[in-house]
Amino acid sequence: MSQEKILIKIINLTKSLVRFQTTADNLGEKRAIIDFVKNEFKGSGVYAKKIVSNRVPSLVITLKKEKNPRLVLVGHLDVVPAERPSDFRPIVRNNRIYGRGTGDMKAACAVMIEVMKNFAQANPKPSLGLILSADEEIGGENGVGFLLRKKGFRPELAVVPDGGTDLSSVVLKEKGLIDLKIKSFGRSAHGARPFLGVNAIDALIGKYAKIRKIIPELKRGQWKNSLNLGKIAGGQATNKVPDYAEMLLDIRIVDERYRSPIMAKIRRIAPDAEIISDGSTFIQDKNARIIDYKNVFEKMLGRRIEFTRSEGASDARYFCEKKIPAIITKIKCGHIHGRNEWVDIPEMGFFYRGLKEFIEKFYSGDKTN
Ligand SMILES: [Zn+2]
């Protein structure tokens, strides 16, 4: 099939994927998209397995009947909520596809689906797999996390096109996270007689100020731990001393060695601080596979590829936990998690071509076996 025809197929598939409203609260749509993709592979001679953890479905595609393919492509089909319902109706304009989840990361999923179909025709078939999960935006524990931590999934290398800015960057570091809920209790009283009560909001603000001293404000361009006070709630009326308040904190760490010291300090300030979710940092060195990948894409794109780091987290951290290297990159896109999300169509084509070439190179040493 010509490059043009493939690209049209990928565009149409992306549009179909965007129409599924696969947000966190919509398990039915997540099931429907997994079935849709499974159906896409019908007749192509691959092995497609639906895996469910805590009702969240994922799809694992392999070309051979094997549990552990050597190389896996990894994508997620869930999205963050849309700004308006029309975001689920994709629009192609000016070499871009607009719509919720186009850049993060349904276009990349469509490319990888077509890459799998391409290699399904190969003889012999390579030991290649594709994981499509449906819970990355809410932590990934029942998708990629489940496969790596509970199902013993151990590929040699993963390709996770869910980090960085465009195909010119390959991410070597991603921050880890600690999401906390901190509560504060007081004693209610009339607002005119605050001395008779204990103000829970005051107490909470005091705790926050102390925690802020542990993790100072982050300036643009700094690669340091960060803290965001994402939500604060409490109180009922002006003239009442509040007896309860709570806050949600989003802490990002640049190295795992900070995790327990930070938590120890926070527990001294707020002993009952509750960890709502956490994720390990992703840190890896350049290795031969990543250099191969860089070379393939530099040659094809005719421009330099930089190794970068990314503040955001991705499912790649579950591979890092098991010391499995991952190639993290992204098809050029914009406004992800925001209004007017888009993905660049030419880079979708380049990603297809480059990924195919890289996979061929990955297995080229095997022929002698
Ligand atoms: Zn993503």
UniProtKB/TrEMBL annotation:
<dbReference type="InterPro" id="IPR002933">
    <property type="entry name" value="Peptidase_M20"/>
</dbReference>
<dbReference type="InterPro" id="IPR036264">
    <property type="entry name" value="Bact_exopeptidase_dim_dom"/>
</dbReference>
<keyword id="KW-0378">Hydrolase</keyword>
<dbReference type="InterPro" id="IPR050072">
    <property type="entry name" value="Peptidase_M20A"/>
</dbReference>
<dbReference type="Pfam" id="PF07687">
    <property type="entry name" value="M20_dimer"/>
</dbReference>
<protein>
    <recommendedName>
        <fullName>Peptidase M20 dimerisation domain-containing protein</fullName>
    </recommendedName>
</protein>
<dbReference type="GO" id="GO:0046872">
    <property type="term" value="F:metal ion binding"/>
</dbReference>
<keyword id="KW-0479">Metal-binding</keyword>
<dbReference type="InterPro" id="IPR011650">
    <property type="entry name" value="Peptidase_M20_dimer"/>
</dbReference>
<feature type="domain" description="Peptidase M20 dimerisation">
    <location>
        <begin position="173"/>
        <end position="270"/>
    </location>
</feature>
<dbReference type="GO" id="GO:0006526">
    <property type="term" value="P:L-arginine biosynthetic process"/>
</dbReference>
<dbReference type="Pfam" id="PF01546">
    <property type="entry name" value="Peptidase_M20"/>
</dbReference>
<dbReference type="GO" id="GO:0008777">
    <property type="term" value="F:acetylornithine deacetylase activity"/>
</dbReference>
